[in-house]
């Protein structure tokens, strides 16, 4: 049994919803590995370096969180990190359907892998990085939805 878990994602940008999941996961596991993917199919706005930098600042107060970057299959990352536990957040039914597919494929690829789903808090059920970027691009105020580091990075992109 592992006492560490991987929370994978693009985190483009990291949101307060992500921070909520990470914070609650640190209460369950002695170590959380925040694994930021280079997944080019998502066409991220921010470079992997900027996403890692924003995440490091956002979780600096959490001493048992390590941030790494990765590409490839999660099952390989889990083997490399010597853990069989992944953390995923769920906001709504759409997330549940998408995560169910990923869950079964990951279990097919590695039957020992366990995925722990944490529900979004009421305040973050509507948060998504994509929606936040869209609002910011159109001049909306997203400051209260993001950690300071991510808000600053987003502001720098859309500053005129």
From TrEMBL:
Reversibly transfers an adenylyl group from ATP to 4'-phosphopantetheine, yielding dephospho-CoA (dPCoA) and pyrophosphate. ATP binds at residues 10-11, 18, 89-91, 99, 124-130. Pfam families: CTP_transf_like. Its EC number is 2.7.7.3. Residues 6-134 form the Cytidyltransferase-like domain. It comes from the Bacteria. It catalyses: (R)-4'-phosphopantetheine + ATP + H(+) = 3'-dephospho-CoA + diphosphate. Belongs to the bacterial CoaD family. It is found in: Cytoplasm. Substrate binds at residues 10, 42, 74, 88. Keywords: ATP-binding, Coenzyme A biosynthesis, Cytoplasm, Magnesium, Nucleotide-binding, Nucleotidyltransferase, Transferase. The keyword Transferase applies. One of its GO terms (molecular function) is pantetheine-phosphate adenylyltransferase activity. One of its GO terms (cellular component) is cytoplasm. The record marks 18 as: Transition state stabilizer. Homohexamer. Its cofactor is Mg(2+). It is an enzyme of class 2 (transferase). GO terms for biological process: coenzyme A biosynthetic process. The gene is coaD. Its main location: cytoplasm. Pathway: Cofactor biosynthesis; coenzyme A biosynthesis; CoA from (R)-pantothenate: step 4/5. NCBIfam families: coaD_prev_kdtB, cyt_tran_rel. This is Phosphopantetheine adenylyltransferase.
